[in-house]
Amino acid sequence: MINFSQINLVWLPVLPLAVISIAAIVVLLVGVRVDDEESDGLGWLALATIVIAFVLALGIFGQSGIAFAGAIAIDSFSAFFEISILIAAALTVLMSLDYADEHRLPGAEYYSLLLFSVLGMMLMAAASDLIVIFIGLETMSIAVYVLAGLLRRDPRSNEAAIKYFLLGAFSTGFLLYGIALIYGATGTIKLVAIHTALTGPLLSNPLLLLGLGLMLIGFGFKVAAVPFHMWTPDVYEGAPTPITAFMAVGVKIAAFAGFLRVFMVQLGPASAAWTDVMWAIAALTMTTGNVLAIVQSNIKRMLAYSAIAHAGYILVALTAGGPQAGGAILYYLLGYAFTNLGAFAVVVALERRDVAGDEIADYRGLATREPLMAAAMAIFLLSLTGIPPLVGFVGKFYLFNAAVHRGFIGLAVIGVLNSAASAYYYLSVIVAMYMQEGGLAEETSRSRPGLVAAIAIALIGTVLIGIYPEPYFTAAGNAYQSAMSPEEVNATTAMAP
Fold it and tell me: How many CA atoms lie within 13 A of 154 on its CB side?
């Protein structure tokens, strides 16, 4: 057992980052001498690295402080997000082992870029400095831009990469200008110092308010919030399916890590400036995502609009604010990671080279051909719908309860109605699997142990965290409170009913 108490606190938060970055470089260098058809070993190396980083991230729980002149936070908040990101990365690698070979993807570039994107995500989760958040976001984004276009002979993949790059670069400009304006208003880029400076007249400073608005646009693009969602369906449809899954989960987790730490934790005193705007964005995001998902015939596009809707559910709690909402968001993101990655893993299982397998019609009769695969997909879709006792139901209950607790009853009602409406398109897939005939006749899971393992792990997480939510929700709540100042924690405790 590693004795973390003997490790200097300054270096503790960067150990998982260091392991991931070194492995990304090693995979790239080793991969130069490995044929693309024999890249399984690189995938297993990436997976082993993720497991090591996961163990190291566990050691950050319970720690408190800052490192590197306030650039990196040492707290359970960053540890929780890093662990969630690493879980998403591990499941993505498992579902990629056979996919990369079948689609002749360059293994060295694929797994190296995947690790570099994980590095950027973890950096965003641990950042306590606006510039570090920006660096993490760019490290993540540049890697994902390339990964989205790695199916080089597929026009849809090329289109996905170009659209994501152009719109992503545009949104990054908003984020960077927002950082510059907040620096101009407060005189610092350190989040703790910005929080301390947010008193009195500064809360109505035009520079600060404009900076908040521009940063909101930047984060809104990354979480696919309306009206910054236009890229999502085309990019999700064209990218390699494991990368689509990773974008739907990993990018969202990392973006919300920065979103929460900046807006809810450190810029909380200025919440009056953005609460009304966030209310409208949350309502539009939920409604737009669900309405457009209903008319989709391609399951990747359907899950893309579903991801938009789920971002809206999370924004409901973010709008409400407070420790209860913060813990609910962390819990929901963890459960969403298992559920959504599991659903995409089933999509990967139905795909073959030269056979898309991503139309909802392809799922007709799946219960007859592959009953276990159909049952797993049904559970994932029911969880996304919010059917008890799965994690999707428990997570939505915590999100909407946090909104009601803070007085946002109307927004919570809109969330519940949207969740009910989503049952239409989720259940349409289940109906196709169990009540219709046709679809693809080829077996899905034969000789694909990595993919089967990914589905099994996601299934266990979806059921276990839903049936037994207490330890996970408690850990999520404690993680969020670890990012708050002692004064805020005391004030919150005093206000609690």
Answer: 22
Q: CA-to-CA distance for 288 and 400, rounded, in angstroms? A: 18
Q: Which residues, at least 6 apart from 156, have a Cβ–Cβ distance to it below 8 Å? A: 234, 237, 238
Q: Is residue 320 scored above 90 in pLDDT? A: no
> Using an 8 Å Cβ cutoff, are 342 and 260 in contact?
no
Distance (Å, whole) CA 75 – CA 447: 42
Sort 52 into a burial class: Cβ within 10 Å, 0-12 / 13-18 / 19+: middle
Please work out, in degrees rounded to the nearest 5, the angle formed at the alpha carbon of residue 172 by the alpha carbons of 167 and 174. 105
Digit-coded pLDDT (tens) for 116-161? 999 999 999 888 889 999 999 999 999 999 998 888 887 888 888 8
Work out the angle at residue 313's Cα, subtended by the Cα atoms of residues 310 and 315, and round it to the nearest 5 degrees: 110
Q: At what angle do helices 323-350 and 299-320 cross, to 10 degrees?
A: 170
pLDDT band for 201, please (50, 70, 90 cuts). Answer: confident
Query: Average pLDDT over the chain, rounded to whole?
Result: 85
Q: For residues 376 and 175, give the distance between their C-alpha atoms in angstroms, rounded to a whole number.
A: 39
Torsion of CA 439, 443, 444, 445, to 10 degrees: 160
